[in-house]
Amino acid sequence: MTIPAITQKLLAAKQIQGLSFTDLEKILGRDEVWIAALFYRQASASEDEASKLVEALGLGPDVASELTEYPLKGLGPVVPTDPLIYRFYEIMQVYGMPLKEVIQEKFGDGIMSAIDFTMDVEKETDPKGDRVKLTMSGKFLPYKKW
C-alpha cells in the first residue's frame, strides 16, 4: 500500500509535536478515528477544522487546503497485506455472512451505512492480555421497493 505524501507529512508532524489522536480529538472536537481517517485522506475537513489541525501540527496553509478537498476513498489492495488490517478482512470472511443474517433478522432487508457511521476504539485491560474493543454504529438503510 502506498501512503500518500500528505499522510506522511501529517504523521511526521504529529510525532514531532508529541501529539496523539486523542490530543487532536480535544483540539478539533472530532473523534480520534475520524481524525485518523482525515490523515489518510478518507475524510475531508472544514476550513476551520483544517486550520486548527495544521496550527496544532505546525504545518502550513497548503496542507490545510488539501485537507478540505474531497478525497478519493478506499486505500490499498482488495485483499489487504498489512497484518492488522488483514485481521478485519479475515473477520469479515468468517463472520460477514453470520453478521448479515443477524442484522437482517433484527432490521429487515437492507445495509448498515458507512456514511452515517461512527466507530470507537477502546483498550480493555485483561490479565490474559489487553484487548481491542471496537464499537461500530451505522444507520440502517432498508432497500427501497419501487
Gist of the model:
The protein has helices at 5-17, 21-28, 32-39, 47-57, 61-67, 83-107, and strands at residues 110-124, 131-142. The chain is 49% helix and 18% strand.
Q: What does this entry look like structurally?
A:
A two-stranded antiparallel ribbon has the order 1-2. The mean pLDDT is 94. With 146 residues, it is α+β, with helices and mostly antiparallel strands. The chain is built from 6 helices and 2 strands. 49% of the residues lie in helices and 18% in strands. It has 2 domains: 5-67, 434 Repressor (Amino-terminal Domain); 83-142, 2-Layer Sandwich (Cyanate Lyase, Chain: A, domain 2). A hairpin with a 6-residue loop joins strand 1 (110-124) and strand 2. Residues 74-146 form the Cyanate lyase C-terminal domain. Belongs to the cyanase family. This is Cyanate hydratase.
Topology:
Elements: H1 5-17, H2 21-28, H3 32-39, H4 47-57, H5 61-67, H6 83-107, E1 110-124, E2 131-142
Antiparallel strand pairs: 1-2
Offer a few descriptive terms:
146 residues, alpha+beta, 434 Repressor (Amino-terminal Domain), Cyanate Lyase, Chain: A, domain 2, two-stranded antiparallel sheet, 6 helices, 18% strand, EC 4.2.1.104, lyase, Cyanate_lyase_C, cyanate hydratase activity, Cyanate hydratase
Tell me the strand order in the biggest sheet. Answer: 1-2
Instruction: Please identify, by name, the CATH architecture of the largest domain.
Output: Orthogonal Bundle
Please tell me the total number of domains. 2
- Kindly, what is the distance between the CA atoms of the first and last residues, rounded to a whole number of angstroms? 41 Å
CATH class of the largest domain: Mainly Alpha
Largest sheet entry: 2 strands, antiparallel
What amount of the residues lies in strands?
Answer: 15-25%
Looking at the chains present, what oligomeric state does this protein adopt? single chain
